[in-house]
Amino acid sequence: MSQDVTGLYEEFGGDRLPPGQRETARFPVLSKSGTPSWDRDDWTFEVWGAVEEELSLSYEGFRDLPSETQIQDFHCVTGWSKFDCEFTGVTFPTLAEAAGVRDDAEHVMFHALDGYTTNLPLEDCAREEVMFVYDYDGEPLPADHGGPLRVVTPHKYAYKGAKWVSGVEFLTEAERGYWEKRGYSNTANPWNEERYS
Ligand SMILES: Nc1nc2c(c(=O)[nH]1)N[C@H]1C(S)=C(S)[C@@H](COP(=O)(O)O)O[C@H]1N2
Ligand SMILES: [Mo]
Asked: What CDD domains does UniProt report for this protein, alphabetically (predicted)?
């Protein structure tokens, strides 16, 4: 069973296709510096910072967490949108509950194997649609698209979703990630065309 969340745009008062976007049937690859390599036996996913219990999970350990499948739209800041992507993984709220987020946590930094980082306020992550994804269309997520594990953020431009995500840091103060330091919008709402800062 999968859950269709492609109607979430209604919350933002816009059309399904955000302004200035074109729909594409392809799934282009966009990476700042190519696809990093990793070894399934050594791969670990870390949760640290303002949490009750820091976590360190193997690939199998991550796959043992409660999972779900969602149909989501994907909006790239460079102007393409892909509708109806089938993603399977663990929702942000499920992971946050496993770690126990402390009351003083306000912000989140996602860290990735290629050195990429991206940030969001905790309240923008505390949504079922924000997922750590390991399967795409029922198959393991291709390496170019962030396999073994990536984040998806259908309510934000896709640079808020770290491919090859290796960990999540809970912060007590806001910080900026890789593109947020280099001129992309910190807030990244596609229905307001928040592309640059
Ligand atoms: N680790 C990592 N994650 C990343 C990026 C990156 O360079 N490194 N690029 C971001 C950008 S700008 C976009 S548009 C999407 C692209 O995802 P895709 O290649 O699966 O289409 O990944 C985002 N996540
Ligand atoms: Mo992007």
From this structure: arch_bact_SO_family_Moco
What is the C-alpha to C-alpha distance for residues 197 and 184, in angstroms, rounded to an integer?
5
What CATH number does domain 2-6+40-192 carry, 3.40.50.261, 3.30.70.100, 3.30.70.3040, 3.90.420.10? Answer: 3.90.420.10
The CA 52 to ligand 2 mean position distance, Å, reads 33
pLDDT at 27: 95
Ligand 1 pocket list (CB less than 6 A)? 28-32, 76, 112, 114, 116, 145-146, 158-159, 161-164
Distance of alpha carbon 79 from alpha carbon 21, whole angstroms: 5
- Residue 196 and residue 185 in contact, taking contact as beta carbons nearer than 8 Å: yes
User: What is the per-residue pLDDT for 1?
Assistant: 81
